[in-house]
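Sanity check

After download, print the first record. It should look like this:
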Amino acid sequence: MGTNFYFKVKGVDQIAEQFKGLSPLIMDEMVDNLKYRLFDIHIGKTSAGWKPIFESQDYFKTMDELESFYEQHKETLVMEDEYGTEYTWEGLKERLFGWNPTGRSNVVNADSEGYNHNGSYYTDNRGYDWTKSIFC
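Expected structure tokens:
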């Protein structure tokens, strides 16, 4: 079992309610999907026995880019896990970035077990495992 971590835009519920108010044809499930797709930016995941895996986004593809993204947008972001626990930047670094650094590597296993299709798994210049695939 693992834990997923996200950046969330502050005020997302108010933004979604404004969107919903545009038309009576906009249903709750559409708003929920919009909130998930536009406002939950998946950072990565921890799993027992594994190094953390980070999800490449349009916003960031390496740890350097992820840190830069946070610095540029920290006033508008909240960081939390899938259970609703909020983190400070330092707390996220400890809980996610520093998780099990000697664990099994997703990249090594993707290569050796044959599921690294089209190079979707890679290691950045700082040694963090990433995937271009969408996962939960």
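If your output differs, re-run the checksum step. Summary of this record's structure: The beta strands are 2-9, 40-47, 53-55, 77-81, 86-87, 121-123, 129-131.
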